């Protein structure tokens, strides 16, 4: 309710009595970050006199930066005990008549804190500095009554959080009316049991079909199990007796749309009266418009019920049974980490995701796209997720319910089983969420596949080859050479870069590979100030001479602008140990296709409306080829990094997938990656000797690019694979229209051969799969001794990576864990040294007269069995 969070006659008197900072009578009283250009900042003059705003200005702290950027220089005056509203010039916001307002260039977004400066000195701020990603996205914040003092430190508890595009309070601080004290009482009311409200179905039996609200109000009494002042804005209550049925929940959420009064605490008996709502799938009692509740005595908090998933039901069905209740995840719950603590782009906050029994696998890692099995697994994954949340958005680098979160002893890995976590079950953003009510320790994680100091194959075979995506290793901050784009995608300060390099080096040393293919290394040449030279120097400093590496350099004729491998900011690279393996000829580059479609080159139609495409210019990184000689045998290694799944190509536009995930779950630009796979296959089909294709193909194990390079056969499946249209290769038209692939190029997926389909090197959105591959021709596949995805990155929290922008005071370590976001893949191969035949030299044999028999005579006697005894 507006009156509970905005100034009233009473609150004005309270505010006037509060101490005011020097030069800080003016403060921020409201922050609006709504849809499109609906942005506004409301200021309040907390003094008894009008104030000249000359010297005041609004600034923003962009996306977690600690340095401010100017937005609006303030002008005019602001009257005593009055407000002034600053609006974006294009905001669709209507203010009350006679509101003191001005327009200004408010270009903050949901990841920006906003500060108020006076003569260059910060006097007030809304949002932490640096600000967590997405902190204020689509949100209105209103300052509470007891917090009308400017402060340079943000305290979330001093602000009420309102829904997107809430403008009703702007400009009307002094018009708010103090609400009358509640006179509601439950005396004489007929009580409804919580379990009767919840029922045994997906929605409340008190709500008619086709409706989202009950026709009548209900009166309910229960014990508070948890408050939610931010995430849900209300409190959870639970029936102390229950109906002893596993099919109906004994708890429910009471929605206030603001923080509950301080008198409502866990253990408090509360009686509420309101209509039952199904709010986007969440069953709740809605007190938003009229707060009818009566606070009783404070007693014991209800004991958490052990959560379990029964045979034959999904995790979602099990969670529906306990929606609103306080539960505990014990060993019998079998809840595993499927996405470790990291940023949730849907909820725009850090959280963690659990699944039942095992982490989720990407459907197209194990099944052919669009197959019945793939579709079924996608559906099963969707109902096998439980988010672990915190009420307020977590501070950078902190896990609110796990205070000992750290890189060495308090880590969280995908696959760990979580136990002893208590919390209430809510529902929002189309997912069930547990809001913890207790703290856990490292001992509450059962390590299923714990960290290892080295990959299992580190000492196997005669040689080892590794593939390693090094997550934008750039050396710009230490004076590295420039790349073609001039952009730095990696470390922003030297401390980050040194940490990143140290973690990568420690991983490489432990891997003990004789050849290493690199992806995402800065494309800044091969000179003394190149990233690859910087990495090799640091790596060799940790090794003996016979373990030392060199990098593979392409010939000048193959270099873009006489320096680079292609024109992207990042590239592929290759390291090798000259003491262990020998170069055989010069390195080569396999150019990959580009896509260039002019605006209007293609049309699409939907609901009778015909549209022309925008222009598309898409590129992908070239591949690097080097042949080696090892014990008189040839081994050709190809390092690749195909187009990412994130940004769309013209095929995605044509299928109306430019803003979403394609239905086949292969990500965007799949046909474009298929085009690259076709070029690779054609380029390698006549290579003599052993061939090994490694790298980040940005395609999971059963997806089209991998199928094209391996065992795809159009005659055995209904799944059609096509290349991209509008492609060029080496500056010439490659394919004007996409073509159908009939047969794969016959390489063998070594991971699948050794371990089956369910391997992984990468985790995205809670699903595991292999983007990093090792594909071999038949002669090399026969030499496989072992292959290992060393899980040092995919299952770890990315908060332990080198970047410090969103990790606060979290201490990083130099261990190889979280050296990147992809796991390295290490392949052990058998290349035994050739055996040189040894001709035996026989001892002379004497005859009975003491003479010696000749060699051939000896052989003859031996063959006849007539060899004489001496």
From TrEMBL:
Family annotation (Pfam families): LTD
Keyword Transcription carried by entry: no
Domain of life: Bacteria
Any one GO molecular function term: endonuclease activity
Record's keyword terms, sorted: Endonuclease, Exonuclease, Hydrolase, Nuclease, Signal
Entries under InterPro entries matching the protein: Endo/exonu/phosph_ase_sf, ExeM-like, GlyGly_CTERM, Lamin_tail_dom, Lamin_tail_dom_sf
Signal peptide (UniProt feature, chain positions): 1-24
Start and end residues of each LTD domain: 9-152
Keyword Ribonucleoprotein in annotation: no
UniProt xrefs under SUPFAM superfamilies: DNase I-like, Lamin A/C globular tail domain
NCBIfam families to which the protein is assigned, alphabetical: ExeM_NucH_DNase, exonuc_ExeM-GG, GlyGly_CTERM
PANTHER family: ENDONUCLEASE/EXONUCLEASE/PHOSPHATASE FAMILY PROTEIN (AFU_ORTHOLOGUE AFUA_3G09210), ENDONUCLEASE_EXONUCLEASE_PHOSPHATASE FAMILY PROTEIN (AFU_ORTHOLOGUE AFUA_3G09210)
Protein name as annotated: Endonuclease/exonuclease/phosphatase
Organism: Shewanella frigidimarina (strain NCIMB 400)
């Amino acid at each position: 309710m507006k009156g509970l969070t905005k100034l009233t006659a009473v609150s004005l008197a309270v505010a006037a009595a509060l101490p005011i900072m020097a030069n800080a009578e003016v403060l921020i009283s409201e922050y609006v970050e709504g849809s499109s250009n609906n942005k506004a900042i409301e200021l309040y003059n907390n003094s008894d006199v009008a104030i000249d705003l000359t010297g005041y200005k609004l600034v923003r702290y962009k996306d977690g930066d600690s340095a401010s950027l100017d937005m609006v220089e303030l002008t005019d005056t602001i009257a005593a005990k009055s407000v002034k509203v600053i609006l974006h010039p294009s905001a669709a916001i209507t203010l009350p008549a006679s509101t003191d307002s001005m327009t200004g260039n408010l270009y903050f977004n949901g990841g920006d804190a906003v500060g108020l400066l006076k003569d260059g000195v910060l006097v007030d701020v809304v949002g932490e500095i640096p600000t967590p990603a997405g902190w204020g996205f689509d949100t209105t914040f209103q300052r509470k009554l007891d917090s009308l003092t400017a402060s340079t430190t943000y305290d979330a508890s001093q602000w009420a959080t309102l829904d997107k595009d809430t403008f009703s309070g702007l400009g009307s601080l002094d018009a708010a009316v103090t609400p009358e004290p509640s006179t509601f009482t439950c005396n004489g009311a007929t009580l409804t049991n919580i379990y009767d409200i919840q029922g045994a179905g997906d929605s409340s039996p008190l709500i008619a079909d086709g409706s989202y609200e009950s026709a009548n109000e209900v009166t309910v009494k229960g014990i508070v199990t948890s408050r939610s002042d931010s995430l849900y804005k209300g409190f959870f209550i639970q029936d102390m007796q229950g109906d002893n049925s596993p099919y109906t929940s004994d708890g429910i959420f009471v929605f206030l749309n603001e923080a509950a009064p301080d008198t409502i605490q866990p253990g408090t008996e509360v009686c509420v009266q309101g209509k039952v709502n199904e709010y986007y799938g969440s069953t709740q009692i809605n007190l938003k418009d009229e707060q009818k509740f009566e606070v009783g005595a404070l007693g014991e908090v209800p004991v958490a019920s052990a959560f379990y998933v029964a045979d034959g039901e999904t995790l979602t069905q099990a969670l529906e049974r306990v929606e609103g209740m306080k539960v505990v995840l014990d060993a019998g719950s079998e809840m595993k980490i499927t996405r470790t603590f990291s940023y949730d782009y849907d909820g725009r906050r850090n959280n963690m995701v659990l699944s039942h029994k095992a982490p989720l696998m990407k459907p197209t890692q194990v099944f052919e796209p669009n197959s019945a099995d793939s579709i079924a697994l996608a559906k099963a994954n969707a109902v096998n997720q439980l988010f672990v949340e915190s009420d307020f958005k977590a501070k950078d680098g902190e896990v609110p319910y796990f205070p000992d979160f750290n890189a060495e002893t308090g880590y969280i890995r995908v696959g760990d089983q979580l136990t002893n976590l208590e919390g209430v079950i809510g529902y929002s953003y189309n997912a069930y969420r547990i809001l913890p009510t207790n703290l856990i320790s490292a001992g509450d994680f059962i390590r299923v596949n714990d960290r290892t100091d080295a990959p299992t194959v580190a000492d196997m075979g005669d040689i080892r080859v590794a593939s390693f995506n090094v997550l934008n290793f750039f050396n710009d901050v230490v004076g590295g050479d420039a790349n073609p784009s001039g952009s730095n995608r990696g470390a922003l300060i030297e401390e980050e870069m040194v940490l990143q390099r140290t973690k990568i080096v420690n991983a490489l040393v432990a891997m003990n590979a004789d050849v290493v293919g690199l992806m995402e290394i800065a494309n800044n040449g091969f000179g003394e100030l190149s990233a690859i030279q910087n990495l090799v120097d640091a790596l060799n400093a940790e090794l003996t001479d016979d373990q030392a590496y060199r990098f593979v350099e392409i010939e000048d004729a193959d270099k873009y602008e006489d320096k680079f491998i292609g024109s992207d900011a990042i590239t592929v690279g290759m390291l090798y140990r000259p003491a262990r393996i020998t170069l055989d000829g010069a390195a080569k580059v396999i150019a990959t296709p580009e896509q260039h479609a002019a605006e209007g080159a293609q049309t699409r139609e939907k609901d009778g409306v015909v549209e022309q495409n925008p222009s598309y210019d898409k590129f992908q990184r070239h591949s690097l080829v080097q042949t080696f000689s090892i014990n008189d045998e040839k081994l050709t290694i190809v390092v690749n990094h195909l187009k990412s799944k994130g940004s769309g190509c013209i095929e995605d536009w044509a299928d109306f997938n430019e803003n979403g995930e394609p239905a086949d779950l292969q990500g965007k630009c799949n046909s474009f990656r298929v085009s690259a796979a076709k070029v690779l296959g054609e380029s390698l089909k006549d290579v003599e000797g052993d061939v090994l294709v490694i790298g980040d193909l940005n395609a999971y194990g059963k997806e089209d690019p991998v199928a094209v390079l391996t065992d795809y056969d159009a005659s055995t499946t209904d799944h059609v694979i096509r290349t991209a249209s509008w492609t060029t290769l080496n500056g010439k038209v490659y394919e004007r229209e996409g073509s159908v692939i009939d047969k794969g190029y016959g390489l063998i997926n070594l991971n699948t051969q050794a371990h089956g389909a369910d391997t992984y090197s990468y985790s995205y959105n809670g699903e595991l799969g292999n983007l990093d591959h090792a594909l071999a021709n038949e002669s090399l596949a026969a030499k496989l001794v072992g292959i290992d995805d060393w899980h040092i990155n995919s299952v770890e929290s990315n908060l332990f990576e080198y970047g410090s922008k969103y990790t606060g005071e979290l201490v990083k370590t130099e261990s190889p864990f979280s050296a990147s976001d992809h796991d390295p893949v290490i392949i052990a191969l058998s290349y035994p040294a050739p055996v040189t035949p040894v001709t035996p030299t026989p001892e002379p044999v004497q005859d009975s007269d003491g003479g010696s028999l000749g060699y051939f005579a000896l052989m003859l006697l031996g063959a006849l069995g007539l060899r004489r005894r001496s």
